[in-house]
Design brief:
This protein is an alpha+beta fold and 273 residues long. It has one domain. It has 4 helices and 11 strands, in the order αβααββββββββββα. The chain has a 5-stranded mixed β-sheet, covered by helices on one side. Strands 1-5 form a two-stranded parallel sheet. Strands 2-3 form a two-stranded antiparallel sheet. A hairpin with a 2-residue loop joins β6 and β7. The N and C termini lie far apart (75 Å).
Length: 273
């Protein structure tokens, strides 16, 4: 009769080492798959937002909401489109930015988001409705301006309607650490990864987030949705007067050393556009 022999300590250590090696090989691949899955969900969210914006504009003669300076509630997309999305919680935030900047709606806390933090929960002030949050933002130049300017932006820059040429190059709704932004070709890149500026000028940093590996997700005025390289943000037609051939684009003469010398050079290795 043969006597059964168990594993020796060395054999067990070899098995454990092989398992550890396999895990080390598989983990990066699993992480990549996980990131890709989150990116797909993010794009699906933005696609749903595109449908919401389309329903609103179709019901309003293809016009965007009116917007005026100094009013927290008047015309903001969160209020204007409220009935179309308020019961849909899942689409408000990108899967990698679900944590809220101000989860309790405390007036003493910042409401601004960041690369991996959603803006909100907004508190009520000066007519603003409480409870809004998200990690996406609208191109502020889509609004119908009330008056000669909105937050310092001249009225002639605004699109006002969906009936425009070149809709596939006009950003609509994108990954963002605020609910909107007014982008001009003179806007400069963030000085470091995660650099935020809360003013309404030079606000491209609101969208220039390293949220999806040197890219964000976004939709355009033709309701298409895709991944957008961070340097590509300067090449779009944000407003009626925006010049996509500017100093931060290849067509405008930007050089690799310009990106390397800006701030701490964090965008230097990203794809050029």
């Amino acid at each position: 009769m043969c006597k059964r022999r168990g594993f020796t300590l060395i054999e067990l250590l070899v098995v454990i080492a092989i398992i550890a090696l396999l895990m080390a090989i598989l983990m990066p691949a699993l992480q990549r798959v996980k990131k890709q899955a989150r990116g797909v969900v993010c794009q699906a969210n933005i696609k749903q937002w595109g449908t919401i914006f389309m329903l609103y504009t179709q019901d309003n003669n293809n016009q965007w909401p009116e917007r005026r300076s100094g009013s927290n509630a008047y015309g903001r997309w969160m209020d204007s489109l409220r009935d179309l999305y308020i019961t849909t919680e899942d689409i408000r935030s990108c899967p990698v930015a679900t944590k809220l900047a101000n989860p309790t709606g405390d007036p003493g806390m910042s409401i601004w988001g960041s690369t991996f933090v959603a803006w909100g929960n907004l508190f009520a002030v000066a007519g603003r409705t409480a409870g809004y949050y998200g990690s996406y933002g609208m191109n502020g130049y889509l609004y119908v301006p009330v008056g000669d300017a909105v937050y310092g932006k001249p009225a002639n820059r605004f699109w006002r309607t969906t009936n425009v040429n070149g809709a596939s190059r006009i950003p609509m709704f994108l990954d963002c650490w605020a609910w909107c932004g007014w982008i001009d070709e003179t806007d400069t890149p963030p000085e470091f990864d995660g650099h935020t500026r809360t003013g309404d000028t030079n606000s491209i940093n609101r969208f220039c987030l390293n949220r999806h590996e040197a890219a964000i997700n976004g939709s355009f005025l033709d309701y298409s949705v895709r991944k957008i390289g961070l340097k590509e943000l300067w090449t779009f037609k944000w407003s009626r007067v925006y010049n996509p051939v500017n100093s931060w684009t290849r067509a405008g003469g930007v050089r690799p050393e310009d990106w390397a010398n800006w701030g701490n050079g964090w965008m230097a290795g990203f794809k050029d556009y």
